[in-house]
Design goal:
The complex is a heterodimer of chains A (148) and B (462). With 148 residues, chain A is an alpha/beta fold. Chain A has five helices and five strands. Chain A has a five-stranded parallel sheet with strand order 2-1-3-4-5, with helices on both faces. In chain A, β4, α4 and β5 form a beta-alpha-beta unit. Chain A is globular and about 40 Å long. Chain B has 462 residues and is α+β, with helices and mostly antiparallel strands. Chain B is 48% helix and 18% strand. In chain B, strands 1, 2, 3, 4, 7 and 8 form a six-stranded antiparallel sheet that branches. Chain B has a five-stranded mixed sheet with strand order 10-12-13-15-14, with helices on one face. In chain B, α7 runs antiparallel to α8 and α9 crosses α10. The chains are: A alpha/beta (148), B alpha+beta (462).
Chain lengths: 148, 462
Amino acid sequence: MEDLIHNVEILLVEDSMEDANLIVRSLKKNNLGNSLRHLHDGAEALEFIFATGKFSERKVEDKPKLILLDLKMPKVDGLQVLKGIKADDRTKTIPVVIMTSSREDKDLVESYKLGANSYVVKPVAFDNFAKAVAELGMYWIMVNQSPR
Amino acid sequence: MTDVDHKIDYLSLFQHAPGLCLLLKPNPPEFTILDASNTYLKATLTNRTEIRGKALFVVFPDNPGDRDSKGTDNLRSSLARAMAKKQTDVMAAQKYDVPLPPELGKGFEEKYWNPKNTPILNERGEILYILHEVEDITAAMQLDIKRKKEAEINLEMLRQKSLLIKENDARINMILEALLKYTTMDFSVRLSVTEKGDELDAIVVGLNSLIDELENNIGMLKSSNQALEYANNELDSFSYSVSHDLRAPLRGINGYAQVLLEDYSEKLDGDGRKNIDVIMKNALKMGNLIDDLLTFSRIGKQNISKVQLNMESLVQTVIHDLKPESGPAITFDVKHLDNMMGDNNMMIQVLTNLISNAIKYSSKKETPHIEIGSYINNDMVVYYIKDNGAGFDMKYYDKLFGVFQRLHGSVEFDGTGVGLALVQRIIKKHRGEIWAEATPGEGASFFFSLPIKTNENGRSDT
């Protein structure tokens, strides 16, 4: 999974290893974990999406089908990543699901303003969250036809 | 001998005559003094022997201490006119000071006179004598002068007073202008004190020290306000961190306990599974606690936006959402409810907390009964939620609305101890009151009152 560079379906951007493992687990349970790449911060995510830095061998056009994006991360936070994705014509059609522990209204409002496609609050009870993420993944990967 | 034949003593007659007369020889420029009436001598502070035979202007020279004196000139002219016309020459009232006799000291005594000079002619029309008659008007003139002086002094005093009034008017105006500025919190101007040290100065001194103190206090207020704002911002980022960072590890605990339960269930016995269940429940409880606490702190900062609330439909919605699917059937008795002005979300929070409490604490009764109603008391509308549940001991009433205060163990009834504190906070923000009555084992009633009249902008300054 760590090595997957091309044809990534789901890009998970999450600084917490624990959360990431649980998310991957619930995605895999729903057969969504096969073409998944996990990145640990916003800076890495931007390099991956825009095929720069250590991901320069990638092509921007090789877009992930879904980005699961944590808000609170070191270096570059989720809102900045979201802004970058939605400001660029090549990437703005990628569905982005914001995942966060924050229940602050301002985060929610700001995320939707910047063009987030969904917003999920990570609850303490992981059950519900796992279900929600799996359903969202299913929706964006299987059902939703995003323009290519 | 008849009376007419009696020899008349003309000398005595002249000397004792009541008029003030001086008899002069018509020999200018000396005008030698021949005699004078006693009254004249008295009025001019002279005596007969000293002045007799002396030249008029030697005896009565001008007062060298009075530069404006024209007595001798006037008298000389009048005498000349009288002699030329050979008839009485009446002089205007005038000042003519007389020298003091040596025994009274040096100098002159101020004197005013009404003089006239009459040439005494013989049959041939020759001038024998000149009769100089005077009327002593010194007292009247001095009184007149004194009055004039007094009048002048009065006028001057009046002028001074009106000046003072004008000046004080200007000062009062300056004070008022400064006060006006002070009311707009502009303290750039300080009034200055005059040399007078009067009441206005006292006011200015008092005002200045008052303004100094006020400015000082405002400064302190501002800095403590800044400190407060800073603390508030700190709290903001703190509660953000709490909401994010405290929940993440709990999610880890709960999530991995779940993984354990799912992936290793066959390796665990019943006790093991139960223990993992406890871990998960506690993580959830901690999560609820954090959520409640965050809501509680957020409510404190939130402004209320008041709208007309239909309490009956609000209560029905809340009951619908809270009604438990299992357990004994609860009878809800919702009476007529008065509508009120309040914040929709906050009021839903209040009703949710109070009604869920009523449900929770009456859940162990066979026939739980919850009554909800309202009544008007003065200018407040009072709502109540009454249950027949566990109640509580009024002895612990003062702990009822405290944060993290619980009157029941969590084994008995679940809860975080934040709910009622939150309700109280919301009601207080609405300028209302909350109170309760209860009997252990028989039930509890919670009341909250809200003002019927509310300020229109719907903001609270708490």
